[in-house]
Amino acid sequence: MIASLSGHVGHVGLDRIVLQVGGVGMLVHTTPRTAGELRTGQEATVATTLIVREESLTLFGFGSVAERDMFETVQTVSGVGPRLALAMLSVLTPDEVRAALTTGDVATLTKIPGVGKKSAERLVLELKDKVGMPSGSAGADVTSASAPSGDARRDQVAEALVGLGWSSKQASDAVATVSTAADPDASVAALLRMALRELGR
């Protein structure tokens, strides 16, 4: 088990980073929130979990231990894999997930792409007594370095949303909606956060 990684950030994408550790570039899949907090060249530490499959070893990284722990906890439910768990933490903070599970808030859980009513009810049933009460801490305020403007920026956001599980149409509609209201100089990460909020309505 690789519990954490520390090193220089070699690359930051919308949902992944490359962390230079001991001369090796480690590809780490992460949430847009965590990626948005990092800058190329800075020293960083991320809490990680390694998913082992017969054909692959995949690292997932998070800005906090609470995020990583929730990522691992929700996967104890049948039918919830790393992709869905990551999508869950891209839409909701760990405390928001915990609150939805402990209160049986199925409506909030179904805002996550790939989670229908039955899946949400199963999550509540199996995890309600395992996740504890929300700590009340707010999610991190994510900022990001400037990114390409115009169509390229919108395309990157739409691609990230599709990667998280929304359909191309849902992604395009959300990007179109937030682009009209966003600051013209808004970064890709800022647009992505706005689109995630829009899709979570």
TrEMBL record:
InterPro entries: DNA_helicase_Holl-junc_RuvA_I, Hlx-hairpin-Hlx_DNA-bd_motif, NA-bd_OB-fold, RuvA, RuvA_2-like, RuvA_C, RuvA_C_sf. Its main location: cytoplasm. The keyword Signal does not apply. It is found in: Cytoplasm. Keywords: ATP-binding, Cytoplasm, DNA damage, DNA recombination, DNA repair, DNA-binding, Helicase, Hydrolase, Nucleotide-binding. One of its GO terms (cellular component) is cytoplasm. GO terms for molecular function: ATP binding; four-way junction DNA binding; four-way junction helicase activity. Residues 150-201 are annotated as: Domain III. The RuvA-RuvB-RuvC complex processes Holliday junction (HJ) DNA during genetic recombination and DNA repair, while the RuvA-RuvB complex plays an important role in the rescue of blocked DNA replication forks via replication fork reversal (RFR). RuvA specifically binds to HJ cruciform DNA, conferring on it an open structure. The RuvB hexamer acts as an ATP-dependent pump, pulling dsDNA into and through the RuvAB complex. HJ branch migration allows RuvC to scan DNA until it finds its consensus sequence, where it cleaves and resolves the cruciform DNA. Belongs to the RuvA family. Has three domains with a flexible linker between the domains II and III and assumes an 'L' shape. Domain III is highly mobile and contacts RuvB. Homotetramer. Forms an RuvA(8)-RuvB(12)-Holliday junction (HJ) complex. HJ DNA is sandwiched between 2 RuvA tetramers; dsDNA enters through RuvA and exits via RuvB. An RuvB hexamer assembles on each DNA strand where it exits the tetramer. Each RuvB hexamer is contacted by two RuvA subunits (via domain III) on 2 adjacent RuvB subunits; this complex drives branch migration. In the full resolvosome a probable DNA-RuvA(4)-RuvB(12)-RuvC(2) complex forms which resolves the HJ. This is Holliday junction branch migration complex subunit RuvA. It comes from Knoellia sinensis KCTC 19936.
